[in-house]
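Researcher: Quick test of sequence recovery. Tokens follow.
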């Protein structure tokens, strides 16, 4: 079946249908085993027609991956829009995104594998997702600063530090590694949030936690924690990536 070129919503609708079918196949057999012929057959069209909308199967895989990532960032946007204190928004977003990614690992292994491949190979859609999440986090930090909730100097640098500190709870490869080792990632997430809470200038009343790190909030507020976080994460990710591909 051949489809003539049509503008606007028709093309968008057909592209969406192609992605729907591709995603269904990815769920069933995985993105690597799904072929363009599988997608075309399901849609009742030729492979040539599929290529009119997507230049390659990789392009379809990246678009499906973008859909998956958008579900997590859409949750973050919804939480960020709530009329609650900035600290509460931050905690809810970090928890919700981690839960979403972890449930994908345990309940949708083939889709997790797609996102892990995208992260490992540094697909552009991963960078776009990270930038969207950074925009959300920066807006919340800025909101907290303006409301005198957070004692920070540069919201952008602070958001970078927060994002990097929580990357082990977001990154599909690192989550997989933690789950394989039987780690309680939720408990670790809560502990990490207490760390960030202190760094943002939020007092942990009566806990005594991190009292020995009196300059911690200053480092994060100035953005000086970001290079250290980044170096540590890159080294950690390199080890885990090598282990998972070995």
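Model:
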């Amino acid at each position: 079946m051949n489809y003539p070129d049509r503008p606007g919503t028709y093309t968008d609708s057909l592209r969406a249908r192609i992605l729907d079918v591709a995603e269904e196949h990815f769920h069933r057999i995985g993105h690597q085993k799904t072929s363009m012929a599988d997608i075309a057959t399901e849609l009742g069209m030729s492979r040539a027609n599929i290529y009119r909308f997507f230049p390659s199967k990789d392009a379809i895989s990246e678009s499906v991956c973008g859909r998956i990532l958008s579900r997590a960032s859409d949750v973050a946007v919804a939480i960020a829009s709530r009329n609650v204190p900035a600290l509460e928004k931050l905690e809810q977003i970090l928890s919700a995104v981690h839960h979403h990614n972890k449930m994908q690992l345990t309940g949708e292994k083939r889709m997790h594998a797609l996102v892990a491949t995208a992260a490992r190979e540094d697909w552009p859609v991963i960078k776009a997702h990270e930038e969207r999440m950074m925009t959300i986090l920066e807006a919340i930090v800025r909101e907290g600063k303006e409301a005198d909730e957070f004692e920070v100097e540069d919201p952008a640098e602070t958001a970078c530090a927060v994002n990097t500190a929580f990357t082990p709870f977001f990154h599909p490869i690192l989550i997989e590694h933690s789950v394989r080792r039987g780690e309680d990632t939720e408990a670790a997430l809560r502990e990490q949030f207490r760390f960030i809470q202190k760094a943002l200038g939020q007092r942990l009343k009566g806990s005594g936690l991190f009292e020995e790190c009196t300059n911690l909030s200053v480092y994060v507020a100035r953005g000086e924690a970001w290079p250290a976080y980044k170096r540590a994460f890159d080294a950690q990710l390199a080890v885990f990536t090598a282990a998972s591909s070995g």
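DSSP finds 13 helices and no strands in the chain.
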